[in-house]
Write a structure and sequence with these properties.
GO molecular function: acyl-CoA dehydrogenase activity; flavin adenine dinucleotide binding
Number of helices: 12
CATH topology of the largest domain: Butyryl-CoA Dehydrogenase, subunit A, domain 3
Keywords: FAD, Flavoprotein, Oxidoreductase
Structural class: alpha+beta
Helix content: 40-55%
Protein name: Acyl-CoA dehydrogenase family protein
Oligomer: single chain
Cofactor: FAD
Shape: globular
CATH class of the largest domain: Mainly Alpha
Family: Belongs to the acyl-CoA dehydrogenase family.
Number of strands: 10
Amino acid sequence: MSGFDLTAEQEQLKAVAAKVAADVYAAPAARWDLERTSLPREEVARLADLGYLGLAIPEEYGGQGGTLVDALVVIEELAKVCRPAAFQVFECNTGPIRVIQFFGTEEQKQRWLTASCRGEQTMAIAISEPDAGSAATDLRTKARRDGDHWVINGAKRWISNGGHADSYLVYCRMSDQPGAKGIGAIVVPADTPGFSTGAQEKLMGFRGIPSADLFFDDVRVPLDHLVIEEGGFGKLFGVFSIERLGNATMSLALGQAALDKSTAYVQERVQFGRPLIDFQNVQMTIAQMAVQVEAARLLVLRASSEAGDGLPDTYQVSVAKCFANEMAKQVTDLAMQLHGGNGYTEEYGLERLHRDAHGWAIAGGTPAIQRVRIASELLGRTFNQRPERAASGTP
């Protein structure tokens, strides 16, 4: 974030996080990306010791009792340098753990929030499936009650932190009710019999953030692992707005990092006997990048600050995510162009920023889906994306 409307405490939080990013994560970040290494467990413990894993979690559960803005300030500073480190802070402050905070029972909060703040429990979200990506309400993973347990069968795809998280908040169908009506959410510990994960995906970006398919074969979990009952899809996606702001902040960080690298480079690099910044085209490009980054920051700050300690406005969130996602792709691309051949190498880190920018624009709902949401909120009506014949049930 910038100094705009940040409190003195948040400015201090920003400065300390920037120092942690530079001193701790700048050196290994490129190596973890190259080797596709997820964040070592000792680094999760370090982030917990710094208090970063509970920034926006109430103090009674081991958190710092801060705001969403506090968490986003830290996420941005870490993400400028090291996305795997930022992602752990992201998961614990804007991820599925917030569903527990808002809608879980007191016992669930004591169990999972406290462990998350201590770095003892990582929780990933499991929504997407092979045939249910943007059309999330088409999911087929099914949970049925059997005595004092839920029995879950199905599969999930593109699950960030898949294969590494200690537990998963699994969106599943709890009856034969169609669409969103039949969907709820259950926490599934990774060591539950019948649960398994596929091979780690080899993605274009997100190389230090593991991703894998999840498989549920008669997975049995106690009834008290149910967090959201059937019909609670609206609650789930209300909290998912927080995750989308975390996503937008990741994109913001990529754009800011690309801008920072570029402003330094064009003042140092000399061609035709002059620094690059002396050329008007370079000046215009830098200005264009700065405008886009600042606009994204203000949109993220508006949505997060107005949310306070509650849920953010879905319209503001979709606007922020859509703009920030596209900004990151465009600004990192322009940064690569300003660096010329150097920008195409791994040494300067621009290609890594650009690869990750495309990932955040896919995760959590694409800009195209955000535009549908924006139109829906703006006009006060819903839009059915399915063919009319399929929606009416005619063959």
